[in-house]
Specification:
By secondary structure, the chain is mostly helical. The protein has eight helices and no strands. α1 packs across α3 and α6 runs antiparallel to α7.
Length: 175
């Protein structure tokens, strides 16, 4: 899905804010937001970061990232087999983390790629997919917890990234 009026309207309603309230935090009018939401006018590219910050909606931000990268982002798990209850999502995240951990234990990265057998390369690829599964499950749990406790996605992620930088895991340019 591309960033369009429908996505803006869904995010705004999910955050329980009016078009007027949204416009007060953006360099655009309530009338313009109404036109964007009905797709009477396309959403200008330069306003998308303002929408992301003003809406402070993880789903919108993930969809925006997905749009920018052509789908190369970690998804929010919303399929029929995912139960969005704290205990269920916690169980899923732990299960996926355990599976990734087991794959990591068996991985052999001591050989250069040209010297690896096909089954060793396949195992590395499976391990990567297991790690991605664990990231998706964990991210979904984080987003649902933030929504449940009405925490700001933007603020929490910024604080977390600052803590990563303080611990030497990120360079300043990544903030």
């Amino acid at each position: 899905m591309t960033i369009n009026g429908q996505l803006i309207a869904e995010s705004r309603k999910r955050k329980r804010i009016s078009q007027r309230e949204l416009s007060q935090n953006m360099p655009t009018s309530r009338e313009a937001i109404a036109k964007y939401e009905t797709n009477a006018r396309p959403v200008p590219k330069e306003l998308k970061p303002f929408f992301a910050h003003s809406l402070d909606d993880a789903h919108f931000i993930l969809e925006m990232s997905n749009d920018i990268t052509g789908g190369a982002t970690i998804p929010y798990l919303d399929g029929e087999k995912v139960e969005h209850h704290y205990a269920s999502l916690t169980f899923l995240a732990i299960k996926e983390l355990r599976e990734a951990k087991e794959h990591l234990k068996e991985i052999n990265i001591s050989k250069p790629l040209p010297f690896m057998a096909e089954h060793e390369v396949d195992h590395i690829k499976r391990t990567i997919r297991e790690l991605l599964d664990s990231i998706a499950a964990s991210q979904t749990l984080v987003i649902d917890l933030m929504q449940h406790f009405d925490l700001s996605y933007v603020n929490e992620v910024k604080q977390w990234k600052s803590s990563l930088m303080a611990r030497g895991y990120l360079k300043r340019r990544n903030l």
